[in-house]
ATP-grasp domain-containing protein
Amino acid sequence: MVSHLKHVGYNVLQIEADEKAYLSLYSHRYEIYLALNYSLGIHGKDRYAHIPAMCEMLGIPYTGASPLTQALVMNKAKAKQLCKAYGIPTLPYQLFSSPDDKRESRLSYPLIVKPVGQGSSAGITNDSVVRSDAELKKQVTLILKTFHEPALVEPFLTGREFSIAMLGNPPKFLPIIESNHAHLPKGYQPLDSLEVKWYVEEEKDSDHLLCPAKIDTRLRGKLENMGRQIWEALDIKDLSRIDIRCDEEENPFFLEINSPPGLTPPEVSKSSYFPFAARVAGMDYDELIKTLISAAETRYGLRRNNK
């Protein structure tokens, strides 16, 4: 990303989002025109909020959503609660803090077990789909021991799965991505698991991702309307990527929101979803980065000739 920023004319100061980040931001606070926040933090359940909070404390403009939004996005359960309050279709779920917690009767198998506060498909594997109490207990135990946080359990839908990239303020939709689970290798569960994202999509010649998705006007309208509702409910800024899955009747349900979404340059990964959708829209990586920065500049009212 740094080489692309320099290529389009920006002077770049790289700051690692670790324990020393505040010291670097503080030392350079009068030099920083805009912070491109691509950080996920390293410690704590609210780590997505750390860099935005530091920037706000120091009066540094930054890309992306506020600390409050970032903290909500990090917690899948809280994001679902808020979306449900806004009337956005969400699946019923239950948080498990112990493997001995009893499954609520409203949850029927098959179910999927996820860590409540992780991104990049961490903790979501081929074994995450469970079909019995024994499998549920085993997977909940694994999540609790691995991530030291509650496990979120919800129905496992087998309908179509979409990823919706949105850019700007108000947001514009990039071409919708559909995960074509029918093309996964034999033995893979039909979901975007860790194995799929980091092995199938990266290392195999695969047409697993369809972009633009082949959807009719009715379904596209549903997906885009849901995307706008989620953006507004969570007060997203500049960019995000929203994951939605349908039931067998093509009724869409909110899964989670990625803020910031992955922005891996194409020379590193051809399957990083947001840049992939941008390329399909005719926007190369340099233009994508410039458009993102322009959105934040406009939001802050920044006008600067030398970058």
Notes: The domain at 94-155 is CATH 3.30.1490.20 (Dna Ligase; domain 1). The radius of gyration is 20 Å. The beta strands are 94-96, 111-115, 129-130, 151-155, 161-167, 172-173, 177-179, 209-210, 239-246, 252-258. The mean pLDDT is 93.
